[in-house]
Design goal:
This protein is α+β, with helices and mostly antiparallel strands. It contains eight helices and eight strands, in the order ααααααββββββββαα. The chain folds into two domains: about 60 residues, 434 Repressor (Amino-terminal Domain), CATH 1.10.260.40; about 140 residues, no CATH class. A hairpin with a 5-residue loop joins β5 and β6. The chain starts with a helix and ends with a helix.
Amino acid sequence: MDIGDRIKEQRLNRSWTQEKLASSLNVSRSAVSGWEVGRNYPDLETIVLISDLFEISLDKLLREDTSMVKETSKRTKRFKFYQITLIILSLLVVSYIGYNQKLRHDEHTYRANLKSHGWLMDNNDGHSDGNAYTIEQEGINYWTYIMPTGWIGFPLTENKVNVIVRDKHLVVDIKDDKNFEAIISKSNDKNVTFSASVTIDKNANFLHSNETLSSNKKHKIKRYLLQYKDNYQQMIDRGTIKRAQIISKTK
């Protein structure tokens, strides 16, 4: 006997019409009719209500109805899948909003710090859109760019603040307090015959390059770094301080 037959049996035992059962369960008469002829099944919540209404256990109500058991199992699994999916999506949305708020707060902090330390917007940079800043002190020029934070788009990118330090023909990119890049260019120094961007340590020692260097070019780079070692060290020290001022979260 399937669940439709059991519902009909219990209804007839009480001399109830399909309308009365439908009213008691807050469903339509056609729904009850569909159950009883096996056209469809009640949902999980309604099955529990039927069990309570007829005062019979769920086990007895569903016994021998393998189709209903399978359908109920499928619905349960689907419900759990949708529930887990909803939880994951909710966590992603909350994380997205929270992380975006953090980025916006950081951006506001960086811009406020720049202003308080005398940095000015670089109006000479036609591609900065008001996000590039510059300051010059003791003949050394400092430049940075603050990435604006938006609500739309994945993934959100943390604002990696770097400071480019220029002292006449020497240029150093302060990426963070441990990573520095010397930018050697013929356009900056007419006395060099090559261009290169190389990673150096805080003492201006050559570490590595993203490009493949010949032994001759590597030798020239090391000799160039050694020639201006004191200048590079001073630029790194001052640039690191400037960057720390920008990203400081304390007043």
